């Protein structure tokens, strides 16, 4: 799972797409998928954030089950825990 690459999206890119879609009637009735320009692993993203923020940030791998348990402990609804567990097991990896 550590090697799974995901097309991370910058919030600025999302706002650019939303702005265009809202004002251009050509997009009416369409589903727009927004993805990042290239796929990266979580570790690669942490390395980029560390470099650009000039802060020391460490990537720590945890299992999906541990992640789900931490979400439960944080008080997230069971539906969220299930959804994120599904996404990380079946979709992203």
TrEMBL record:
Official protein name in the record: Uncharacterized protein
Species assigned in the record: Gaetbulibacter jejuensis
């Amino acid at each position: 799972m550590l090697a799974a690459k995901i097309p991370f999206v910058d919030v600025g890119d999302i706002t650019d797409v939303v702005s265009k879609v809202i004002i251009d009637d050509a997009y009416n009735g369409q589903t727009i998928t927004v993805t990042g320009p290239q796929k990266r692993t979580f570790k690669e993203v942490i390395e980029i954030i560390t470099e650009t923020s000039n802060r020391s940030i460490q990537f720590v791998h945890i299992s999906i089950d541990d992640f789900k348990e931490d979400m439960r402990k944080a008080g997230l609804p069971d539906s969220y825990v299930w959804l994120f567990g599904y996404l990380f097991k079946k979709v992203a990896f």
